[in-house]
Amino acid sequence: MSQTFTHLISDCDGVLLDTEAIAFEVLQRELAASLPGIDVAAAILPRLGLTLDALLADIARHHPLSLSASDIEQLRDTVEGEVAERLQLIPGVAAAMAAVPLPRAVVSNSAGHRVRAALDKTGLAPLFEGRVFCADEVGAAKPDPALYLAASQAFGVAPQHCLVVEDSVTGVRAAVAAGMTVLGFTGAGHVADGQSDKLLACGACTTFDDMQRLPELVALLCQHNKQ
Q1: Of 11, 18, 144, 167, which is the active-site residue?
Q2: Domain boundaries, the chain
Q3: pLDDT tens-digit map of 40-96
Q4: Does domain 7-18+88-226 have CATH number 3.30.750.210?
Q5: 209 classed as catalytic
């Protein structure tokens, strides 16, 4: 008999908070002058989910993008400022998370102070009881599986007992590499056509675009895994 799932781990931006669309909009606006003649949206969109530094470095490997350290810090402040000002929840996420009868954690490539402030502001913080694991604090960023492994270690369970909700290819790859089962969420404001296929291709077991379905999907997977 298979072991059941006992814990739920969620990404933050694009799963709990509909912030990736805001970051996408700000990055397009701010990088347009630095990438003349380039489809800036097409350069940014597939890299959402990476840290800002990794996103910019990867764009620079394929396009003539040159930003100083001060430029990057100013861009980071602009993105984080607008995201914080326009913060909004994924519709139905608070009720959906509360209806999943498993201990929960958040794993994010965003800065820990920003994630905690956002969870506090939106009222989601009590659902996770302080279990927040962020790249700047763990010392590794997705697609490295270390963030997810840190969460399972803190829970005191093997990775295969953890279900993960992710919206990005970067995040799905990290969770799969950690040995976890992933539900791909495609209902955030930034999601483009074809994202479901991309998440499935890199290891998500299924995808869904309505957060109200989360409790049902978790229950079905838990039941299936018991058989």
Answers
A1: 11
A2: 7-18+88-226, 20-85
A3: 999 998 898 889 999 999 999 999 999 999 999 999 999 999 988 999 999 999 999
A4: no
A5: no
CA–CA distance, 94 with 173 (Å, rounded to integer): 25
The closest alpha carbon to 31, from 2, 49, 55, 3, belongs to 55
| Residue 33 near residue 40, CB atoms below 8 Å | no
Active site residue 18: no
pTM of the model: 0.86
